[in-house]
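We emphasize that the prediction below concerns an isolated chain of 271 residues; any contacts that depend on oligomerization or on bound cofactors are therefore not represented. The input was used exactly as deposited, without trimming of termini.
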Amino acid sequence: MNWRHIFLNASALALLFAGGPAMAADDQLLDAPEVTISAATTGASGFYLRGDLGYAGWTGEGTPSLRAFDTIAGTSDTASFDDTRFGKPFSGSLGVGYQFNDMVRADLTGEYFGGDYDASGQADFACAGEAIGTNCSGDARADYRAIGLMANAYVDIGTVAGFTPYLGAGLGVTRLDWSDVSLTTECVPGAVACSGAAAATQSLNGDSSWRFTYALMAGVSYDVTQRLKFDLNYRYSQIDDGDMFGGTDIEGFDDGLSRHEIRAGLRLSLW
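Result of the prediction step, given as a token string:
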């Protein structure tokens, strides 16, 4: 027996059996289906519509002030309201936007909100018809309406299990329309006594003006479907100061509105 031939034949058989599974595995890899990455995985760009409802439970008024002309002294005096409340905190907005890539998007929004205003304060000058040395307390009540136009930009930080946190900022203008203001004044004794006259109430014409506005946002969206997102965010906005009301001998100014809002809404992609 030729042991050399037997060894070579055995080696060939071993290589054949060893190579068979490897070649079969290679064939399976070659026959594997192709994997493609869809737009839903990589993100997409395009237009979207949005709608939001807001609750501004925390509205700061700054320091509203009143300037009155003292007919006795012939000078103008200024007083501030030290106790001011704003009501009707709900708001709504609609907008259209564009998603540029996975991280950056921007939109234009129009919003509407209204409220009531109730303030009281005391001035260090006399009410009309009272003697110098007395003080004047006042209560003011009014309603207001506001229409805002904002351009906003956002950075989406990343998506985990359908949730996408983001940060945003906006610039725009707000038209603040004040209704007629009811102002009630009453004499407060000071260095001298009051005349005893009853409190006087007058109606003052409300003013309207466009105000510069900026906003900062932080929130999270959730993928309800591939095209529909639920959005929940916190928004801080600051509306510039301006005229509030005016009359023959008296004018009022608000110190702007700072609004802390919680907003919830939907974004619908149009691609």
